[in-house]
Design goal:
Layout lengths: L6 E10 L2 E11 L4 E5 L6 H9 L6 E6 L2 E5 L2 E2 L7 E5 L10 H6 L6 H14 L15 H13 L5 E5 L7 H18 L2 E6 L2 H7 L2 E6 L2 E6 L1 H6 L4 H7 L3 E8 L2 E4 L2 E4 L8 E6 L4 E3 L18 E10 L3 E8 L5 E7 L9 E6 L5 E4 L1
Parallel strand pairs: 3-9, 3-10, 7-8, 8-9
Antiparallel strand pairs: 1-2, 1-4, 4-5, 5-6, 10-11, 12-13, 12-15, 13-14, 15-21, 16-20, 17-18, 17-20, 18-19
Helix pairs in contact: 3-4, 4-5
């Protein structure tokens, strides 16, 4: 039997100075589920989280936690009565308190039960034996784990996390994300994580809600958002893209790479065919011998190398194409650094492309 949602957000909206910064945001989160509210800076995601937390007042809409309405017409339950855990970028640890006292701050019950909960969480975040240390004695990653333990200590029904990893060193971030996700899953809390980093959302989320200009524009599993973006901007948010312009004619669009199926677009409509750099292939087998169409990959098109850069796992090669004044970028695994001016033939997987109205 499917569990009822832990969190329901329905048509939540907020304006500042006459400008609507959050517009009709709706989402649900089940117990144990991690949902990432993803979007660029200023899109309204942190304001949404703050309204759910109760530290920002909603203009309209509802927030329901475990069936209890905490935001609604005439209803505004104070933050401390919502059963939520909060974790922010700056960690906000008390510098004068030990690690153990930070984690146990606000816990109720007898001293033995409080200490047992503190010890349990320090063990879970791999800080057993750190209880008597103070925040200034810890690394950034260790402080982040203390903040996580403190937020989880009261066993919140819902964890709200606002860019909690952005202050960490890049070398530590992936490991801290993974260990945090493991602890969150073990605790079984529903989690809403706000982030502007698509890699973080893809790594941590069971579901992603992509936000733009105060609205959720697409919501679903990470695989679906990456592989079936709703528009060009959604595709570009998750990775670099190449764009080829065309005109739809009878559900087909002719391009220098061959014909593409473009159903749903009116005859004569301008369309954009979007392809990620890793799906732009260099035709090494037929280099310099001209176009030879294949059913899946269409027709090769000629490009001249402008620049090649080695990035470790892959090389990025930028091309000036012989059509539309286009510049396209191919991602090639490993080391591939052709000299500027080299002419190569490129192909694209037509089943890996996205087609949008121009």
């Amino acid at each position: 039997m499917q569990q009822p949602p832990r969190l329901v957000v329905d048509a939540l909206s907020r304006s500042f100075g006459g400008r609507r910064v959050v517009e009709d945001v709706s989402l649900t989160i089940a117990p144990g589920q991690v949902t990432c509210l993803l979007g660029p800076s200023g899109c309204g995601k942190s304001t949404t989280l703050r309204m759910i937390a109760g530290v920002e007042t909603a203009d309209q809409g509802r927030v329901v936690i475990d069936g209890d309405t905490v935001v609604g017409p005439g209803v505004h339950v104070p933050p401390e009565a919502r059963g939520i855990g909060l974790m922010f970028q700056d960690f906000a640890l008390f510098p004068h308190l030990s690690v153990a006292r930070n984690v146990g701050f606000g816990l109720k019950g007898d001293a033995q039960a409080r200490q047992a909960r503190v010890d349990e969480l320090l063990e879970k975040v791999n800080l057993a034996g750190y209880g008597q240390k103070h925040p200034h004695e810890l690394s950034g990653g260790e402080q982040q784990r203390v903040a996580l333990a403190r937020a989880l200590a009261p066993r919140p029904r819902l964890m709200l996390m606002d860019e909690p990893f952005s202050g960490l060193d890049n070398r530590l971030r992936d490991g801290i994300r993974d260990s945090t996700l493991e602890v969150l899953k073990a605790e079984g809390a529903a989690v809403l994580l706000v982030t502007h980093e698509p890699d973080e959302a893809l790594r941590m989320a069971d579901e992603i809600a992509l936000m733009r200009d105060g609205r959720i524009v697409q919501r679903g599993a990470p695989y679906n958002l990456y592989n079936s973006p709703t528009d060009r901007a959604a595709a570009a948010f998750f990775s670099d893209i190449n764009v080829i312009e065309g005109v739809s004619r009878g559900a087909l669009t002719e391009t220098p790479f061959g014909r593409f199926l473009t159903p749903g677009h009116a005859d004569g409509a301008k369309v954009e065919i979007v392809i990620r750099p890793q799906h732009l292939k260099i035709d090494f087998d037929r280099a310099g011998r001209g176009p030879h169409p294949t059913e899946l990959e269409g027709t090769p098109a000629r490009g001249t190398v402008l620049r090649a850069r080695f990035l470790g796992r892959e090389s990025l090669v930028e091309f000036a194409m012989d059509f539309q004044g286009a510049r396209l970028t191919a991602a090639v695994p490993g080391v591939f650094l052709p000299k500027p001016g080299t002419v190569l033939w490129l192909m694209i997987r037509r089943d890996r492309c996205f087609v949008f109205a121009a």
